[in-house]
Amino acid sequence: MEPLYNVNGLMFWTEREIRLRRQFEEHFAFTMEQILLAENPAWKFIQVEAPLLTPRTEINPNYTDEDVWVQENPIDECLEKEFYQWIKDTDVYDVVDCLSKCKPDTPELLEALLEYVIDLNERLNREGDKYESHRPWVEQVFALWLDCYNKNPASLVLRPETTPGSYTYACHLLNSHSGVKPPFVVWQTGKSFRREQDQVTKNMRLKEFYQQEFQCIYTADTMNDYHAAVLDPVRKMLGEMIGLPTRIVESDRLPSYSEITMDVEAHTESFIFNKENDRWMEICSISRRTDFPQKARFQTKKKVIEKDLLVLEIAIGLCRSVYCFEQRSKS
Length: 331
Fold this sequence. Notes:
Blueprint: H1 15-39, E1 44-47, E2 53-55, E3 69-71, H2 77-89, H3 92-99, H4 107-127, H5 135-150, E4 156-158, H6 163-175, E5 184-193, E6 208-219, H7 226-242, E7 246-250, E8 258-267, H8 269-272, E9 280-289, E10 296-299, E11 304-307, E12 309-317, H9 318-330
Parallel strand pairs: 1-5
Antiparallel strand pairs: 2-4, 3-4, 5-6, 6-12, 7-8, 8-9, 9-12, 10-11
């Protein structure tokens, strides 16, 4: 692996490393199935491949625009001019009332609204008290624009994790006639993207990287603690493949969507320098998530029963796994 673009965090992978990543993916998928089936033979496994570009509304709010790569919305200039003229010629009270009723799914409308707010603000600053009575309404319109823009499904980002696509597909399965009911796993392998700070290669803080994530969906009233049950088997699975000592530690960050997050780390530095340095690298995180967007519905003879759903998430960093294996093989 080499950053040949001379840009930190963007790697070229050799054929050997690509083959290793594929082997890891296949082994981890097979072993995860065995681990969960040993806990409950009712688990079902569905692999999916979701788009890399994801609507901004589907991304967890823990990821801000400082964390993700955001695509700018295209602007239809004719529609913008038409709307801009209407909004300038209309009483600000009517503007607010109209916009509060419209669907926030047109990027051109939102962009035109921003232009209106900027123009009105400039007039306020330039002409002072003459337009001072409009200031509270400018603030209200601007707040409305921000709310619409943040909820605009036309805004696309490069996904920071595979979870949104897996959640969307899981909801599709639950809402269709697929017959899929909890417990079931939707998993995928693919690239994710984040705005990581530039660091040396050995820290593996990549801007573009491969993840293998398992979203294991089950009802919240289950008596089985799947999170605790998989911790050591997953640690052993990773350690056996990369050939390094591994450990389980409590994560140093707990996202708002997680009740508990534990990390699997590999001990790398001692093998690189043939001496005992206390350097550990996170290669997997295991969380119990509470942010699945819908309930499960079970039809009985008399009524429909709804149950909350939890998600056991196993997120494996394939790039870091390959890196650790290669460092071990060089020692």
